[in-house]
Amino acid sequence: xxxxxxxxxxxxxxxxxxxxxxxxxxxxxxxxxxxxxxxxxxxxxxxxxxxxxxxxxxxxxxxxxxxxxxxxxxxxxxxxxxxxxxxxxxxxxxxxxxxxxxxxxxxxxxxxxxxxxxxxxxxxxxxxxxxxxxxxxxxxxxxxxxxxxxxxxxxxxxxxxxxxxxxxxxxxxxxxxxxxxxxxxxxxxxxxxxxxxxxxxxxxxxxxxxxxxxxxxxxxxxxxxxxxxxxxxxxxxxxx
Length: 240
What we know:
FadR/GntR family transcriptional regulator, 2 strands
């Protein structure tokens, strides 16, 4: 660590110095940072600036402070990290199509991994969720779809992917609801969605990762196509 310049925003530079300290010294979970007083003297900034930087790092679960034990590096927790960051990026301009495209990237990989690691119980869970997709109740359809994707994520047996999906599940549910509203009154839509999800299960059960990825992506492409069609129809209607 080195003294911080007088014209800089102190707590931001403290954050940068701490980050560099962690990286350069390859600090691991459980390793200690300098005590607050010593850090203040080394960086030649007030203890208030150091305290502010440490509070930010603690909020984002990078460090933890305990009386009498000092400040230590925390073990990374993807779910907590994303849960803290994610709400700042949920802007009104994050349209459904972008979310669907993001889901294609994430869940296509999950489907492929599930085909490698699934168990009989995982397939049973997905089949249970599948039945709810034929319900005439929109809420049941949405919950069944969520249950299906969570079961598929569990089948992939990857905690990081499960954590990410858990964190985005709230916006995922809103995305599903919006998509279902586009499709709810479309004749044969729920049967088509059922068949698409059934194809994903069949591919996962057969251990065919590439086919599982393709089937999952095709179901999301269908939703994107319907939203685009709806937007075009609405635009044309407003022009007449």
